[in-house]
Design brief:
Length: 882
């Protein structure tokens, strides 16, 4: 631990020289020996590698097996069609993921930073990758810290380490030895770390760790140990594949046994069973899921979110916990003056532009003139902030108050010093010296002898001081950073020791890193949607609590704990308390990962947002990681599933809404395809049970599955309905998609479709011929499934409650699918290929009537259920009133 070791000992240990630095030759040797000062990036996958990963889905593997079996039994056309669908699905998914990776690459900075390094006794600029351990580096305001280092000497040094520690306020640094060995990373004042930015002052430091050995590198190493989790939809799709596969095998075995018992040849029954197994699997399901997710990705990209992994869209829809970094995500990552205290009264920020009091104007002038920061604009009109975030906030205060800086030149100054905790600027006007001072309230008040009261100056008594201190304590208790302001006018320039004595106290400013304006509404929307928002930050507990309460994250009875308190909890204890803890303060990267794991272990779907290097391991571990596109580091972006181009927390909520729509529509498509396939299975199973001839040939089943079913399923996948998805609770991670209610409904609908198809087949065979019976069965199966789409679209309410004509895509898809089925019967060439027969007008009426049975039956069930619920609610009201 270098913060525990004296500087001269470190220099000796690292064989360096404080004045001359390393020699160029030695630096070259170390670079060759230890490697460049860069972070190891994950190898970018080629399009072909991404394409191959698409075949890991269980349902896809089942389809590939089905294709192989089809080839084996001589049904090459069936096999080719299955392979075509599977390949098309993989190509669409691969294209989306590869394009997202390209967009991510475009977000990365192209420039290479340089550091000022002592080499061979002179200062030269060296690219960051060529910095080595033992280098003596000089850094000043605005410079990036090139690598981890121990400070040799510094002057008024402040460093922004928010990217690594998550703390929003710049940290005061010094070179003093730290005796305590158990010091958190954020409190190691004599160290600087790679990715930090010098916001004030200057320093010289010796590099103690670079590249993957730096603190950022340790975080990057953690990424390689974190396994990516399967998304809920991927798990459910695998689950469906397994259930369907087992169900198909059981039914195929039954059909084989029953057919053999009825006297059919074993080979014929084997081929029939295999044909049914191939037809029973919903070949269109993977493609429908892929296309629906792809449409969701396109919508999100237009709204400011780049989705890197396709299944991430629906994962957000299932999320019931969002763990969010505070700095830059929930807050703006810039300090802002929220209140000003003058002449015994508190002024809120909405009064700043209109306040014309002399005392207020005097305080703002001091804040403006006793300041080394500035706000400029580049050639594109984009705001460029120069200097410490606290001082920039004071420049903004002046601008909001309509006060601009005069062109007067500063006579002299006493820079901010961590021991004095003050800064003073001296101006000379009309032969007098005006001294402006700002600093820590407890120190500055002791330097004051008078105070400004309205337009008068009064002597500062001990009682007055107590009153001011009480105000400071009250503001500090609400997590505000409080600064005090004073001035004096003298005829002669005092000595340096006298500049900050006998001052006139003017007032206080209270500032904080403010929440983003839109975040409060987004968090309220999350609450309505059953989503718990959790703040995880490197800031102090008091600051975190105040922000969390303002945003509505920390409610009455909920807990806020620190990283040290978290360390004392076992995994079991954390799991027991995790639901009641809403804020984690002063945490490390390991803590963030542990928090995410604890939520996952208690059956939650976790989304994690963040922008810093310190967020990256948790982003990778979470069910979905959302990195910030503007302020986010490359490490965070590479670890994420989705990148928010606008760094807006509300975009996450928008993505949740989109994800829920996607998941709801995919479930509709699953419902439709599975119930239709059950209808096909039941048709053949019942026919075998009753010793009927086969009602449908394999080519009929494949045509229905790949052509007639797929278009309506896809149309259901892009359905827009009136239901507000953000007023419903998210589906539980452990919830089986085949819930009791879902399973009963799907089985009932499948049986009904199978029954009407078999009735049509029986009628055609009995009164006409086997060919006409199969024609009836083929048409009724196709058309009944198309009418069934309206049942699926309105799962609980009547189809007339949400206009069936509203989904134009579904209407067009049904018309096209119906025509594809009807053309097979009407066009002689196709009719011969499918072994069907033409039908007269009366026969078409019969087909249409039977095809409507599933739709009408479902409407009757929904009507009866609605009346039952209504009667029950009336009965309950009667009982309550009694």
């Amino acid at each position: 631990m270098f913060f525990n070791i004296k500087v001269d000992e470190i220099i000796r240990m690292l064989h360096s020289d404080e004045k001359n630095g390393l020699t160029g030759e030695e630096a070259k040797k170390r670079l060759e020996m230890y490697g460049e000062n860069v972070l190891a990036e994950e190898k970018r996958h080629t399009f072909f590698e991404i394409f191959l990963t698409q075949f890991q889905d269980f349902l896809i593997l089942v389809l590939l097996v089905a294709s192989a079996v089809s080839f084996f039994i001589g049904q090459a056309s069936d096999a080719i069609m299955i392979l075509f669908v599977v390949t098309l699905n993989a190509l669409i998914a691969s294209f989306q993921e590869y394009r997202a990776d390209n967009e991510l690459e475009a977000l990365k900075e192209l420039s290479v930073n340089e550091a000022k390094v002592y080499r061979d006794g002179r200062i030269i600029k060296v690219p960051f990758p060529e910095i080595v351990v033992g280098d003596i580096v000089f850094a000043e305001s605005g410079d990036l810290i090139a690598a981890d280092g121990r400070i040799i000497e510094c002057s008024n040094l402040q460093v922004d380490e928010s990217s690594l520690t998550g703390e929003s306020v710049s940290v005061d640094k010094d070179s003093a030895l730290i005796e305590d060995k158990d010091v958190p990373l954020a409190d190691r004042k004599n160290m600087v770390y790679s990715s930090g930015i010098v916001t004030y002052g200057k320093c010289t430091y010796i590099v103690t760790a670079s590249g993957m050995d730096s603190e950022i590198g340790k975080v990057a190493k953690m990424l390689s140990t974190e396994e990516e989790t399967l998304t809920p939809l991927a798990e459910k799709t695998n689950e469906i594949g397994k259930v369907l596969s087992i169900g198909c095998l059981v039914i195929c075995a039954l059909i084989f046994v029953l057919g053999f018992m009825h006297g059919n040849k074993a080979l014929d029954m084997f081929m029939t069973s295999i044909s049914l197994a191939v037809a029973a699997i919903p070949e269109g399901l993977p493609t429908v899921i892929t296309i629906v997710l792809s449409i969701g990705i396109t919508r999100l990209s237009k709204k400011g979110a780049i989705v890197r992994k396709m299944h991430a869209v629906e994962t957000l829809g299932s999320a019931n916990v969002i763990c969010s970094d505070k700095t830059g995500t929930l807050t703006m990552n810039k300090m802002s003056v929220e209140k000003v205290y003058i002449t015994n009264r508190l002024i809120n920020k909405d009064e700043f532009p209109t306040n014309k009091s002399i005392a207020y104007k005097m305080l703002v002038n001091i804040a403006y003139d006793c300041n080394d920061s500035n706000i400029n604009y580049d050639e594109n009109g984009k705001e460029v902030r120069i200097g410490d975030t606290t001082e920039v906030a004071l420049i903004e205060l002046a601008k909001r108050s309509g006060i601009t800086r005069d062109k007067k030149e500063r006579f002299t100054e006493l820079p901010f010093d961590s021991s004095r905790k003050m800064m003073s600027s001296v101006y000379k006007e009309e032969g007098k010296y005006i001294i402006y001072t700002k600093g820590a309230s407890d120190v500055l008040l002791e330097k004051c002898s008078h105070y400004v009261c309205e337009s008068k100056i009064k002597k500062l008594s001990e009682m007055d001081k107590i009153g001011f201190y009480n105000q400071v304590n009250e503001l500090s208790s609400k997590a505000y950073r409080v600064l005090a302001y004073a001035y004096k006018v003298v005829d002669n320039m005092p000595g340096e020791d006298e500049i900050e004595n006998d001052l006139i106290f003017v007032g206080l400013t209270a500032m904080i890193d403010p929440p983003r304006e839109e975040v409060l509404d987004s968090i309220n929307e999350c609450k309505k949607a059953g989503i718990k928002t959790v703040m995880i930050t490197g800031d102090h507990k008091l600051t975190a609590e105040a922000i969390a309460k303002d945003l509505g994250i920390l409610s009455e009875g909920e807990e806020c704990i620190t990283g040290l308190e978290l360390e004392k909890l076992t995994d079991e204890e954390l799991s027991d308390r995790i639901g009641n803890i809403s804020v984690y303060a002063r945490v490390s990267p390991k803590d963030k990962v542990r928090i995410v794991k604890a939520f996952q272990n208690t059956n939650n779907v976790v989304a994690m947002s963040g922008d810093g290097v310190n967020d990256a391991p948790a982003l990778k571990r979470a069910d979905i990681g959302c990195a910030m596109g503007i302020t986010g580091t490359d490490v965070a972006k590479n670890a994420s599933d989705m990148i928010l181009c606008d760094d807006n927390f509300s975009t996450i909520v928008m993505a949740v809404k989109e994800g829920r729509k996607v998941f709801r529509n995919i479930k509709k498509a699953m419902h439709f395809l599975i119930s239709c396939n059950i209808g096909e299975i039941m048709t053949l199973f019942l026919a075998t049970l009753l010793n009927f001839p086969m009602p449908l040939l394999p080519i009929h089943l494949l045509w229905v599955n790949l052509v007639t079913d797929s278009l309506p399923a896809l149309a259901l996948g892009v359905d827009e309905n009136n239901i507000d998805v953000m007023t419903q609770k998210p589906a539980k991670k452990s919830e089986n998609i085949f819930t009791f209610g879902f399973s009963v409904r799907v089985l009932f609908e499948g049986l009904l479709i199978g029954a009407v198809t078999l009735v049509g087949f029986w009628y055609g065979c009995t009164y006409y011929s086997l060919s006409e019976g199969r024609t009836f069965a083929f048409l009724i199966l196709c058309l009944s499934q198309l009418f069934h789409t309206f049942n699926v679209r309105a799962m609980k309410e009547s189809i007339f409650d949400d206009s069936p004509l509203k989904n134009k895509t579904l209407i067009i898809a049904n018309i096209v699918s119906a025509m594809l089925a009807i053309f097979v019967v009407l066009i002689p060439v196709l009719r011969n290929i499918f072994v069907l027969t033409p039908l007269g007008t009366s026969k078409w009426d019969f087909v249409l009537t039977l095809s409507l049975v599933p739709l009408v039956s479902s409407e009757i069930v929904k009507l009866a259920k609605g009346l039952f619920i209504k009667d029950n609610s009336l009965l309950t009201q009667v009982k309550k009133s009694a």
